[in-house]
């Protein structure tokens, strides 16, 4: 019949728990932790970031892409 899906416990925001103030766009290794192999930004439900840090993270990724520190698309 129907299988019930178990809900995952909400993840704690990485940047809130590690007390990192500002997300630096020059730290490409940190940015890639929250991006897929195709260089897409993970959604909040998958990355576990809070709303404020998700917006700040997206802004940092867009700056890094503009400066060619992180690719727009991996093929």
CATH topology annotation of the domain at 16-66:
30s Ribosomal Protein S18
CATH superfamily membership of the domain at 16-66, which one? Answer: Ribosomal protein S18
Q: Beta fraction of the residues?
A: under 5%
The percent of residues in helical segments reads 40-55%
SS summary, helix count: 4
What is the C-level CATH assignment of the domain at 16-66? Few Secondary Structures
Distance between the termini: 40 Å
SSE order, one letter for each helix or strand: HHHH
Quick one: biggest sheet? none
The number of strands is: 0
Summarize it.
This is Small ribosomal subunit protein bS18. By secondary structure, the chain is mostly helical.
Structure description:
This protein is mainly alpha-helical. It has a domain at 16-66: Irregular (30s Ribosomal Protein S18), CATH 4.10.640.10. Helix content is 40%, strand content 0%. The protein has 4 helices and no strands. The protein has helices spanning 14-17, 28-33, 44-47, 51-66. The longest helix has 16 residues, at 51-66. One of its GO terms (cellular component) is cytosolic small ribosomal subunit.
């Amino acid at each position: 019949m129907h299988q019930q899906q178990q809900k995952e416990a909400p993840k704690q925001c990485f940047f809130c728990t590690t007390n990192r103030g500002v997300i630096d766009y020059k730290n490409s290794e940190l940015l890639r932790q929250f991006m897929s192999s195709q260089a897409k930004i993970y959604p909040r439900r998958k990355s576990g970031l809070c709303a404020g840090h998700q917006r700040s993270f997206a802004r940092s990724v867009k700056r890094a892409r503009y400066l060619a520190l992180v690719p727009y698309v991996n093929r």
